[in-house]
Q: What sequence folds into this?
């Protein structure tokens, strides 16, 4: 029977890999006068030296109440914003359907991988923050043409011995030749003294490390040093626990693996 690993840190870190899948297309147009009727944006975009412009068009009915329309481009896990507040220009109306169009440059410096376009509308009749609604989301595969390199992990800082109920922190440096933004996730797996892999209450076995300057004892955000804080509850067995640490990039290339043995007393 697998033991449930409990983390006592600033927040429940296991939620990182248990989030819902990102919805596509229409999200929220209820309780507004306008209605989103179509989105024109490719599912895949291939970088080209001659033209790297991504064009987007949203079409609405009853657009008189729309003040402005824009979109952001994010990494799939929303850890980084690639493009922010790209505004769309209003075009002519045809049979009560009005199009809003715009474009942005996706350069070759952006790593190959999956991204998300999030679309927003601000109306001109609602008061306060309620006037802005996220109306749609669209998944985009971007192919940069760059040769992909797997991330490399190094400089593990990890105690060799801890006691039950003692909080400890370990850190790891991650480098990706395609840029920091290409790092999709950094995680560790834990095996108990009997060789059984540990999981949390959600059945997750690959636990995330963080580089946000906030969680798990991480000091500085986005510096390439990932951290996590752990505590083994008193109910756990003592002995040698094996930690396996790995990083993964946005196309699924996996780093070297570092293995560390921690003695729990």
A:
């Amino acid at each position: 029977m697998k033991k449930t690993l409990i983390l006592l840190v600033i927040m429940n870190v296991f939620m990182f890999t248990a989030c819902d899948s990102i919805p596509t297309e229409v999200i929220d147009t209820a309780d507004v006068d306008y209605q989103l009727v179509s989105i024109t944006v490719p599912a895949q975009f291939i970088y080209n030296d001659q033209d790297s412009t991504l064009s987007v068009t949203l079409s609405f009915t009853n657009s008189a109440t729309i003040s402005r329309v824009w979109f952001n481009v994010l990494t799939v896990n929303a850890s980084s914003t690639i493009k922010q507040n790209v505004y769309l220009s209003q075009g002519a109306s045809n049979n009560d359907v009005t199009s809003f169009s715009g474009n942005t440059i996706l350069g070759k410096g952006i790593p190959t991988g999956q991204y998300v376009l999030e679309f927003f509308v601000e109306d001109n009749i609602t008061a306060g923050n309620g006037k802005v609604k996220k109306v749609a989301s669209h998944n985009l595969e971007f192919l940069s043409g760059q040769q992909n390199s797997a991330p490399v992990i190094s400089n593990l800082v990890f105690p060799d011995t801890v006691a039950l109920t003692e909080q400890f922190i370990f850190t790891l440096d991650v480098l990706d030749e395609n840029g920091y933004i290409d790092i999709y996730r950094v995680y560790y797996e834990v095996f108990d003294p009997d060789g059984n892999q540990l999981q949390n209450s959600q059945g997750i076995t690959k636990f995330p490390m963080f580089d946000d300057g906030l969680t798990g004892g991480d000091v500085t955000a986005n510096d390439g040093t990932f951290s996590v804080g752990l505590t083994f509850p008193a109910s756990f067995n003592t002995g040698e626990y094996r930690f396996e640490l790995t990083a993964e990039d946005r196309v699924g290339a996996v780093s070297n693996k570092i293995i560390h043995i921690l003695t729990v007393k």
